[in-house]
Amino acid sequence: MQTVEQTLRALLTEGTQDGTLRPGSKLPTERELVERLAAPRSAIRRALEILERDGVVIRHVGRGTFLTEVAVQQVDGAPADTSPAEIMQVRLLLEPQVATLAARVATQADLDRIGECLAAGGASDDFEGFESWDARLHRAIAKAAHNGLLMNMFDVLNTGRALPVWGSLKRRTSSPERRRCYHEEHTAVVDALRDRDPDAAGAAMRAHLQHVSDNLLGRG
């Protein structure tokens, strides 16, 4: 049985992998963690003390508990000095193939979850909201491939998106127009998945990621 500390670490790891937690992200309050983890407040406090000692979180009296860069590096993922260009190179190699496989083997439940992420991203009118749902959408597509080894590889790649250099570059190059364009490209990927068209899904994902790469790296 997992300890409260292990459960909390797993929660943070999942958050960094799906893009909902980044360095500087504020953690839920102790009261919220008590409810979420079904654990006594004293156990939550002990777990947070251990995480703070390990440098995974930092606590500010009156403000809350925040994730540090150490938490991202501990996910056994992308090296801390990974560049946005390296991230995009690997994404272009991996994710079109992931989409191709997902088009073949995704269940209806997978497609429903992917559709939820797509809709929520399209409804997000701010940078943080769109980025969060963007990360969840890409991860939901990877999960729909139903390959554990591939999922592990994807999660290692996805930790790169939580690195500060990635976040600052994405924010600097983001605009409402680009977010709308990315949503249209996401829609093309999801439509191909729903049509069970592997070639179209792979091609749509490749086109989308090439566009993201061009915008991020100044070629667009």
Structural key phrases:
220 residues; mainly alpha; two-stranded antiparallel ribbon; 11 helices; 2 strands
Oligomer: single chain
Strand content: under 5%
How do the strands line up in the largest sheet?
Answer: 1-2
Q: What gross morphology would you assign?
A: globular
Could you tell me the radius of gyration in angstroms?
A: 18 Å
What's the helical proportion of residues? Answer: over 70%
- Helix and strand content put the structural class at mainly alpha
Q: What is the count of helical runs?
A: 11
Summarize the structure.
By secondary structure, the chain is mainly alpha-helical. Helices cover 71% and strands 4% of the residues.
Describe this structure in words.
Helix content is 71%, strand content 4%. Helix 5 packs parallel to helix 10. With 220 residues, it is mainly alpha-helical. It starts with a helix and ends with a helix. The chain has helices at 4-18, 30-37, 41-53, 69-73, 84-105, 108-123, 127-143, 148-159, 164-173, 176-194, 198-216, and strands at residues 57-60, 64-67. The chain is globular and about 55 Å long. It has a two-stranded antiparallel ribbon.
Map the helices and strands.
Elements: H1 4-18, H2 30-37, H3 41-53, E1 57-60, E2 64-67, H4 69-73, H5 84-105, H6 108-123, H7 127-143, H8 148-159, H9 164-173, H10 176-194, H11 198-216
Antiparallel strand pairs: 1-2
Helix pairs in contact: 1-3, 5-7, 5-10, 5-11, 6-7, 6-10, 7-8, 10-11
